[in-house]
Amino acid sequence: MYKPEELKELQRKPKINDISLIVLKRYYAMYLVPFIYTYNIIKPSGDKGRIKLKFNKESFCHLLGLETIAKGSVKYKEISEYRGHKGWNNIENGEIDFKHLKNLNKKKFQSVKAKFVYFYLLPDLIEQPMAVLFDNKRVNPRVKIESEILFYNKYENAVIHLGIDKNEKEDLYYPRTFFVEKLGKDNVEDIYTVNQIKITVEKEKRIICI
Predict the structure, then answer these.
(1) What is the pLDDT of residues 29-41, one digit of tens each?
(2) Are 162 and 151 in contact (CB under 8 A)?
(3) pLDDT by residue (tens digit) across 71-125?
(4) Closest CA to 54 of 126, 153, 131
């Protein structure tokens, strides 16, 4: 079983049996939560801007799709145990792990398994992302995913995506969605980015939050 520090140094994606939910949580807490990332953005029109991205504990369960696995398998009032701070704490105390999620719904667990396996690449993605202004109406077939900006990059045989949106109250962007698109012989284009408006994104700095 990898430790968070070992996960950060991997050159190839891990096997699902070599990681755990609590390791991914601690990895996220170690390499993403403590920082604010500032990016300079240039749109095709030439307009320039700057955004700040902040990862938070509340987003972790949602990014990995834990609520998706639980829906339909637990009572409605129990769904809150799989999201936000409750989900975060339930992972830390061992109440939610891969075995528990598989027992809830093995089919749904398999459908989001790629998120677990490729999650270790998230710190790399946000260091040097490619990006588009995302419009789900431009995806064929149309998807429910919603985000203002989609960071992405190709790793091995897959494209890793991080959708971000703005929190107007804090003037910060936050992670809204994380997903993986596998590429193969019959699927060589990334349907989520191919028809979108591409923008130039360059990381300016990363600062530690107090």
Answers:
(1) 999 999 999 999 9
(2) yes
(3) 989 999 999 999 999 999 999 999 999 999 999 999 999 999 999 999 999 999 9
(4) 126
Separation of alpha carbons 24 and 181, rounded Å: 20
CA dist 93 and 96 (Å) reads: 8
The token pair at 210 is: 């107090």
Q: Compute the Cα dihedral for 34, 40, 43, 49 and give only its sign.
A: positive
Q: What tokens does 175 get?
A: 């992670």
Query: Which amino acid is it at 44?
Result: P
Cα–Cα dist 69/110, whole Å: 9
End-to-end CA distance of the chain: 31
CA atoms of 120 and 23, how far apart (whole Å):
10
Cα separation of 10 and 181, whole Å?
20
CB 165 within 8 A of CB 172: no
Grouping H, G, I as helix, E, B as strand and the rest as coil, residue 27 is: helix
Report yes or no: 127 and 191 within 8 Å, Cβ to Cβ. Answer: no
SS3 126: helix
Query: How many CB atoms within 10 Å of residue 163?
Result: 21
Instruction: Give the three-class secondary structure for 185.
Output: coil
Above 80 in pLDDT, residue 162?
Answer: yes
